[in-house]
C-alpha cells in the first residue's frame, strides 16, 4: 500500500508521526486485504484548517479530529478490491490529537494511531451512526491498535 503523508504546515513534519501512520495503514492493508496498488493520502493540519473543511463538507462549524473522504463514497461495497488504486483522503488535526491524548490519558502516538485507523475504516466503508455499527467499528479499531501495541495505559496486550 502506498501512503502519501502531507502537511498543511511543513514545520509540523515529524518522522515519528509518519512512522505511526505508516504502521497503522500498512496493518490495515494487511488485515483488510488491500493490495499493493492501494493508495491513501493523509494530511496533517491544525484546528483552524480542519474547522474550515468540517464547515464546508459537513456543515459543522467547529474543528473535528479526523475527516475521511473516500473516493468510492456512496458505493455499496466500499473498497473495490486489490486493483483499486486511490482509496481517498484522510485529514487529521494535530491539535486534536494532543487534546484528546491529554483528555484520555494516553500518548500522542496512541491517539494518532487511533485517528488514523478510524479514518481508514471510514474509507473502507465503516460508519458509527447506529449503535451496532459503532460497536463494530470500535471493535475493528481496537483490533488493529492492539495488534500494533497501541493500547491505553493499564490495558493488556
Short structural description:
With about 160 residues, the chain is an alpha/beta fold.
Q: Can you tell me the number of structural domains? A: 1
Approximately what portion of the residues adopt beta-strand conformation?
15-25%
Low-confidence stretches are 74-78
By secondary-structure content and strand pairing, the structural class works out as: alpha/beta
CATH class: Alpha Beta
Report the major sheet: 4 strands, mixed
Helices, by number, come to: 5
Cα-based radius of gyration, to the nearest Å: 15 Å
Spatial order of strands in the largest sheet: 1-2-4-3
Order of helices and strands: EHEHEEHHH
Instruction: Write down how many β-strands occur, each being a DSSP E stretch of 2 or more residues.
Output: 4
CATH homologous superfamily label: Metalloproteases ("zincins"), catalytic domain
Shape: globular
Percent of residues in helices: 40-55%
Subcellular location: Cytoplasm
Protein name: Endoribonuclease YbeY
Main location: cytoplasm
Cofactor: Zn(2+)
Amino acid at each position: 500500500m502506498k501512503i502519501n503523508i502531507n502537511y498543511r504546515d511543513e514545520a509540523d513534519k515529524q518522522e515519528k508521526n509518519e512512522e505511526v501512520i505508516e504502521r497503522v495503514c500498512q496493518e490495515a492493508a494487511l488485515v483488510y486485504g488491500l493490495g499493493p496498488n492501494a493508495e491513501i493520502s493523509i494530511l496533517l493540519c491544525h484546528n483552524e484548517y480542519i474547522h474550515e473543511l468540517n464547515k464546508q463538507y459537513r456543515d459543522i462549524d467547529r474543528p473535528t479530529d479526523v475527516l475521511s473522504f473516500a473516493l468510492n463514497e456512496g458505493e455499496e461495497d466500499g473498497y473495490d478490491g486489490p486493483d483499486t488504486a486511490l482509496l481517498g483522503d484522510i485529514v487529521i488535526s494535530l491539535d486534536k490529537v494532543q487534546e484528546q491524548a491529554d483528555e484520555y490519558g494516553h500518548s500522542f502516538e496512541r491517539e494518532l494511531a487511533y485517528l488514523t485507523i478510524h479514518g481508514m475504516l471510514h474509507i473502507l466503508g465503516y460508519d458509527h451512526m447506529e449503535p451496532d455499527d459503532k460497536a463494530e467499528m470500535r471493535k475493528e479499531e481496537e483490533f488493529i491498535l492492539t495488534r500494533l501495541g497501541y493500547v491505553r495505559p493499564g490495558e493488556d496486550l
